[in-house]
Amino acid sequence: MMKNKNNKLRVLMPLVVMVLAGTMLSCEKDYIEEPSDTTGVTDELIFSSRENVQTFVNGILANYKGQYRGNPDEGGLYAMYFARAVKGNDIIQDVNWYRFDYGHENREPNFRRTNFTWDFNYENINFANTLIFGVSNSDGLSEEEKREFTAKGKFFRGFHLFELALEFAPNYNNDRSLERIPIYTTPTSLETVGGNPPEPMSEVYGQIIQDLEDAVADLPDSRLGKSFINKAVAQAVLARVYSVTQDDWQRVSDLARSAYGGNANQAVQSINWGSGFSDMQDQEWLWAMFQNGSDETNFFWGHAAPMFDHLTLSYNASYIDPEFAAEFTSTDVRNTFIDIYGVSATTPWREFVSTKYAFTFASDIPIIRKSEMVLFDAEAQYHLGNIPEARNLLFALQSARDPNATITTNSGQALLNEILLERKKEFYGEFGPQWFDAKRYNLPITRNDIHRISIDVPADSNLLFLKIPEDEMDLNDNYAGFNNI
């Protein structure tokens, strides 16, 4: 990963030059300062006080909603998540941005999806390692502050290593000895030569879990706002990780319950459905990216809203598969599907658009919501054999979205299928739950002929992960002879 080249640097330079400005807060929403290159700022200064270290953390979070490269589908975290969202069978993407993700044509080693995903995540891992290293050597922080900021660094490192493991490797449980991606736990710089070797996936997930368990132990419950991380956010991400490894369903349940607060009926209550799905102050949103339309916005880049909203001037590029729309009752608030073009006879895939998102430059972007944790709890109870509790947790969400919902009588595989379907219905357009679930359960993604591209993805297909980038293969000698399937 880390080696100089002539024009484009594969190296991830530590974030040691940033504007040292305090975090601006409004009474309702939080602002994150973008990092900038301020010549003369040293590591010693950055890590000399709590305020300066927090500014460093703010810069990492600002990277999540940045305009990372020159294309709208190479933005921040939202770009990676929306790319996953269009890989399922619920969304139909027009010939626009993300069309190659929709067509599963995006995995080659020199494609921008592959390069962006690798660079974005390893860059943030390097920022995390710089944070951990800088905090550990600081003379200006108390021991309590060092624990807190080290926990934040470990959260970022574990979070992004998990995203890399999802994107660049097949199902973890198919072959835990498979070697595809490297682990970095120390900072790298422009002077770093070479790269670390790819490690067995068991080692990769061991590092992910250790980092996130440490973060859960040491992160505070409090935070500056929902754009920032705290213990509950770390618990939610770790629940995602254990849902992939499937080693400890009781741990999934415990983490999910802690993250959503323990009261499922209360946790799933939301004001966003039918209101544009853009307000991070909704109690149901756990972690989000804030926008205010002026100094805190990425304009047309904050997907999914600019893609989904056909009632506002934007990309107007995402449509809904009619079979997916038919899964919703007429009284379900998530049934946001309308026919505004009247072209179903000539262009069937353009029949339905969704009004889930009302796009403005001030539309907040969800990362994790409590409802996901409630469904993880239901899934965990299913695997633990607590079928009545699994049904009750599932019904907590279903009844909050549809006043006419009735509690399921399903059991066995049918109950698990219903939980996974509910994930699709609750999170369409957000983080790609069908793609995520297809990977961890070895499920196919099957599209009907209405889709603009009706490609089917078989279970355990190579289409469910990306190839290692060409630059990495060329510059990291540890990949010599690597089978880049």
UniProtKB/TrEMBL annotation:
Give its localization: Cell outer membrane
Please tell me whether the keyword Acetylation is annotated for this protein: no
Signal peptide positions (record)? 1-26
Keywords attached to this entry: Cell outer membrane, Membrane, Signal
Residue span, RagB/SusD domain:
363-445
> What is the predominant subcellular site recorded for this chain?
membrane
Spell out the InterPro entries in the cross-references. Answer: SusD-like_N, SusD_RagB_dom, TPR-like_helical_dom_sf
**Where does the record place the SusD-like N-terminal domain?**
31-242
Q: Which Pfam families match?
A: SusD-like_3, SusD_RagB
Q: Which domain of life is it from?
A: Bacteria
Q: Which Gene3D superfamilies does the record cross-reference, listed alphabetically?
A: 1.25.40.390
Family of this protein: Belongs to the SusD family.
* Protein name as catalogued: RagB/SusD family nutrient uptake outer membrane protein
Organism, as annotated: Winogradskyella marincola
What are the top taxonomic ranks of the organism?
Answer: Bacteria, Pseudomonadati, Bacteroidota, Flavobacteriia, Flavobacteriales
